[in-house]
Every structure is written in C-alpha cells, then in structure tokens.
C-alpha cells in the first residue's frame, strides 16, 4: 500500500492563501490604483492613464532613476569584489568563523540602531569624526558624497551576506581539484584564476542579483540617513516612491511609480528565480 | 596577493566594527561627557538608560516583540507545511523564488489600500498577518528537507502516520536547528522593517519607528540615542549570539 505523494499538497494552502492575498492581489490591484487620483484619505477619482503620462514627463523621476543606477554601479562591483576577496582571504583560517559572524552582524543589528551609530560617527556638523579631527565630511553638501555615504552604509550592512555565500561556494570546490593543479605546477595565483574563478562564476552571478535587490531596498538607508539630500542625489527610486505616496500623499501617482519599479524588480526576480532553480536542481 | 587580501579583510573588519563599538561606548558614557565631547572615558554611567525611561521605548519594545514573535511563529508553521508540500512534488518553487525578491515595502501602496479595506490599519494584525507567507522561510526549510534522508518519512508513512503527523511528529523535531535558524533570520528581518510599520500602523510604533523618530527629535543626544539603539538591538543580539553557529551553517548549506 503506497500512498501517492500528492496527498500532501493541501498543506501548502495556508502559504498560498497568504501569498495570494498579500503579494499577488496587491501586485495586480496596484495597476488599477495607478489610474486614480488618490490621497489615501479621500475617495479616489479615476483619471485614466494620466498618472502614466506623468511618469514620462517627470524630471524628478529621471533624476531618481539616474541616482539609482549610479548607486548600483558604485555598490555592486564593490560588493562582489569585497565578498570574494574576504571569503578567499579567510578560507581555512582559524578566525574564519569569528570573522564571518562579525561581518554578518550589521545585517542583524537593528537598522535604526545602525543609522544612529553612523549618524553620530560621521555627521558633518556634530559627528564624532568632526569632534576628533575637525574634518567636516561632505555627505550633506556634495551630491557625490551623499550617494557614497549610502553606498558605504549598504556595503557595511550587506557584505557579510556576500562573504557567506562565496565562502559556501568555496567549500563546495573539491580540494582535490586544486591540489591536482598544484602538483601539475600551477602557482597560487594560477589556481585562483584558472580554477577557482570559473567555478565561482555562478555564485558571483547570484550575488549580482542579490546585490541588485539590496540596491533596490536601499530606500530604508536613504530614509534614515539622508532623506534624498543633498540636492536629490540620494533620492533612489524606492525612496522617491515612498516620498510621493506617503509624504506628498499622492498615492495614485505613487501606484504608477510602483508599477514601474515592480516591472524592473520582477525582471530581476525572474532572473534570480532561474538561477536559484538551476542551483537547487543541480 | 594573499597579503593584500588579508589587508583588505582587516580594514573591512575594522570598518564594520567601528560603529558597533562606538555605539556600545557612547551608550555608557555619562550624558554630560558626550555634550562636552571629551572622549577620554570620564566614567561609566547608566544615566542614558535611565533617561530612556520616559521616551516610550518600553511600549515600542513590547509592540515589536509581540508583532515579530507572532509573525515568525506563523511563518514557521505555514512555511514548514509549504516546504513539505513542495518536497513531495508540488511545483511551487518558482513562485516562492519570485516572491523572495519582492521586498514587501515595494507593495506598500496596494497593501495600505487593502488593509484599509479590511479595517486593519493601526492594528497588530496589520503588522503580522501579511507576513505569514514567507518565501525566505519556505526556501530555507525546503533546502533543509532536501538534505534529510527521505526513508524516515517513508517509514513513518508505512507505520500508518498521516501527513500531518509526519510533519509535526517526524519532521519538526528533526528540523529543529533549521527552524531555529530560519526563525532568527525571519525575526531580524521583521524587527528591522522601518517604512512598512510607519505607514500601516503609526499608532503602534515598533522599535524602528521609535528609533527613527528619536533620531529626528533628539539628534544631538548621542548617549541617549546609543542607549536606545543598544536596548532595541539586544533581543536580536542575544538570539544571534546564542544561535550564531546554527544560523551561519543553515544559511551556508542552503547556498551550497
């Protein structure tokens, strides 16, 4: 008497119900809200495609997309490089576990607490660095510096995650392969370049996707540290979305922005799902 | 090359450690030492923590503990069931992975409207229920189920165990370490939400809402801010220190 495994499928119902109600339904209904003129408190007024037309004429959105792109271009290469460099450097060290635990810590320290630590250390007017050295860090006056500040904060928070992922992949490379190459006369640098790098490629690709998600989520750091200043240089699109909807109370236009950001995110998510599916079947 | 890598690692560790150490240090400075900017330790003081008493930190902690706790409990129960269903053949993984990449805060506007429709704005349910379908938890538990020898489940079935019994009596105890690790990660993720609780339940400030308000209203009081940051980080810090090995291993194993 063998039972067919299909019997257990109903056990996924609670999760499906939740994902349906709080992910899929909002995902679909936001398109409808995007056709409204709506402050969130008043009754919505349908305005057709007006909000979408406004997207194309919105100079602020253009600036904000540029800030997001710039942010990703600064953050992603640094994230990948640091994750790999550190994971290779600590592989097999006695302190490996300790260093990984330390680097993972900022991702868990409450983000509000992290913001407080960064604020009181690096604030240009009354931060500790200013008090100690007299150096006024240009975060709040120079647009490039403001963006760099958010990049550094995001790296501070998320690099531990990248190190863990690369480190796990390094452990998956059979040591025999590396030893064989050494016996054949390969130098350490050659082993890294010719064996480790190609084998790490899928992992690094995965990190690109993860890093992109971190970049999209950087609006929390922006909210806590710069609120889009100076001169809109840190107004990444996620923050612009929040600001439009819940500070300027234009939820209808915010919904149109959401549709735009979601389209981009879903594209990235589909890529991530494909990579992860391929790995979990391997 | 290796020396250079080590140098980068050392510098980055220092960069990561600095704000954390500074936070610990500032929290215990006497309040007046911070204002005069004399950083030579002038003494150890719990004054900042005493000053916290009147700020509403207690209520925020309570709200967050209850909300994050209930959230994680639901996520683990629903997540284990769903992971088991997928392990037995339900083709749901694609959807789960797609949802994994969608930060809930991107759906803030439609969620706000939906919760408004349900009459749930400014309730505990608004902070908890929408998170019960957790792609991350399902994913981590599924990876753990895949590492488990499946004969155990088959043997239990042969003994006449129903599916519910298999999950509750056989799998849940075996997966205790992974459930713990996934639980801590999910707890931290929920604990760290900032914009979401601000929008859907501003009447019930969570610790992050409380901290960001405090940072805005008292930007100069480092000691007080440091103490607040420390107190609100403590629950996660304790969980992390106790289960660190387990968390890192579960996390790494799911990416191997």
UniProtKB/TrEMBL annotation, chain B:
- What transmembrane ranges does the database entry give? 60-85, 92-112, 124-142, 179-200, 220-243
* Membrane topology listed for this record: Multi-pass membrane protein
Which Pfam families does the protein's record reference?
BPD_transp_1 (PF00528)
Superkingdom, taxonomy of origin: Bacteria
User: What cellular-component terms does GO give this entry?
Assistant: plasma membrane
**Which keywords are on file for this protein?**
Cell membrane, Membrane, Transmembrane, Transmembrane helix, Transport
Gene Ontology biological process terms, A to Z: transmembrane transport
Ranges for domain ABC transmembrane type-1 come to 61-243
Q: Where in the cell is it found?
A: Cell membrane
By sequence similarity, the record places it as follows: Belongs to the binding-protein-dependent transport system permease family.
- Report the protein name in the record: ABC transporter, permease protein 2 (Cluster 1, maltose/g3p/polyamine/iron)
Q: Which organism is it from?
A: uncultured Truepera sp
